[in-house]
C-alpha cells in the first residue's frame, strides 16, 4: 500500500465512528491529509471528496438528501480567515450545523455589507440562537496592527484593531501578559459588542428572541478554545449612551 492509499484508508476509517449519543464525546475528525501528501494536485482533492461522500453515505444513506433540503443551524460563527482555525473542525460539528463568516482578524465592521448581510440572514432568516466571535492567538492581522509598518490594503482593514490598542495603551504598559495575546482577546470582545449593538440583534431581542453573543479565542498551540466570558444575552447588557437600549 503506497502513502496515498494509506492516507485514503485512514480518511475512510476515520468516518466509521457511529454517530450516537453514547459515543458523541469520543468523536474525532479524520486524519488530516496535507496538500503536499497528495502531490499538491487539485484533482486529488476531487478524489478525497469522493471518499468523504462515500463514507458519509455509508453511515447515513439519506445524509446528503437531507442536506439538500435546507439548513437549520443554531450558530453563526464570525472567525478569522486563518487556515488553521476551521470552525466546524475545532468544535467537531458537521455540515449544516454552523453558518460561517470569516475574514482577516475576525472583524465586524458596521460599514461592511458582507458581514452585516451574513448576520441579518443568520438572525432573521435562519433564526440562529448563538453568535460566536472566535479569534486566535498568534493572529497575523492583530500582530500587524501593533506595528507602524505598512502592509498594503490590509492596513485599512486593521485600523479598528489599532484603535483598540490605542484605547487600552495604559493596560498594555502595565501588564506582563503577551501583548499580542491580550490584543487578540480585546479585539474579540470589541467585535462581540459591535455585533450586539446592531439593529439586527437589538430587534431580535426586542421581539423576545433567544439570541446570545459569545467571545472565544482559539489556541493554535493546544487546539483548545478559551471562553472569554463576554456573553451578551440581552439589550440591557449594553445600556450605554453609545448603544441602543430599549
Strand content: 5-15%
- Ranges where pLDDT stays below 50 over 5 or more residues in a row are 14-25
The total strand number stands at 5
| Distance, first to last CA | 65 Å
> Tally the helices: what do you get?
11
CATH superfamily of the largest domain: Carbonic anhydrase
| Helix content class | 40-55%
Class by alpha and beta content: alpha/beta
What is the radius of gyration computed over CA atoms, rounded to a whole number of angstroms? 20 Å
Q: How many separate domains?
A: 2
What is the fold named in CATH at topology level of the largest domain?
Beta-carbonic Anhydrase, Chain A
Sketch the topology as an H/E string, one letter per element: HHHEHEHEHHHHHHEE
What's the pLDDT, averaged over the residues? 88
Major sheet size, sense and barrel closure: 5 strands, mixed
With strands numbered from the N-terminus, the spatial order across the biggest sheet is: 2-1-3-4-5
Assigned CATH class of the largest domain: Alpha Beta
The multimeric state of the shown protein is single chain
Amino acid at each position: 500500500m503506497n502513502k496515498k492509499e494509506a492516507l485514503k484508508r485512514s480518511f475512510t476509517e476515520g468516518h466509521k465512528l457511529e454517530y450516537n449519543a453514547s459515543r458523541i464525546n469520543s468523536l474525532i475528525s479524520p486524519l488530516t491529509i496535507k496538500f503536499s501528501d497528495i502531490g499538491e494536485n487539485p484533482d486529488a482533492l476531487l478524489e478525497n471528496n469522493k471518499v468523504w461522500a462515500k463514507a458519509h453515505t455509508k453511515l447515513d444513506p439519506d445524509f446528503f438528501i437531507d442536506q439538500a433540503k435546507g439548513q437549520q443551524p443554531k450558530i453563526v460563527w464570525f472567525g478569522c480567515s486563518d487556515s488553521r482555525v476551521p470552525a466546524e473542525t475545532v468544535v467537531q460539528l458537521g455540515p449544516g450545523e454552523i453558518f460561517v463568516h470569516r475574514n482577516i482578524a475576525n472583524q465586524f465592521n458596521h460599514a461592511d455589507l458582507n458581514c452585516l448581510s451574513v448576520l441579518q440572514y443568520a438572525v432573521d432568516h435562519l433564526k440562529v440562537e448563538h453568535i460566536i466571535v472566535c479569534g486566535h492567538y498568534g493572529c497575523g492581522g492583530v500582530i500587524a496592527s501593533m506595528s507602524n509598518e505598512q502592509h498594503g490594503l490590509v492596513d485599512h482593514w486593521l485600523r479598528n484593531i489599532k484603535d483598540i490598542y490605542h484605547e487600552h495603551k495604559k493596560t498594555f504598559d502595565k501588564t506582563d501578559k503577551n501583548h499580542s495575546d491580550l490584543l487578540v482577546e480585546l479585539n474579540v470582545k470589541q467585535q462581540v459588542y459591535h455585533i450586539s449593538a446592531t439593529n439586527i440583534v437589538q430587534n431580535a431581542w426586542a421581539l423576545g428572541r433567544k439570541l446570545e453573543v459569545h467571545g472565544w479565542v482559539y489556541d493554535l498551540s493546544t487546539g483548545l478554545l478559551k471562553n472569554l466570558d463576554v456573553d451578551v444575552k440581552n439589550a440591557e447588557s449594553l445600556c450605554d449612551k453609545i448603544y441602543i437600549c430599549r
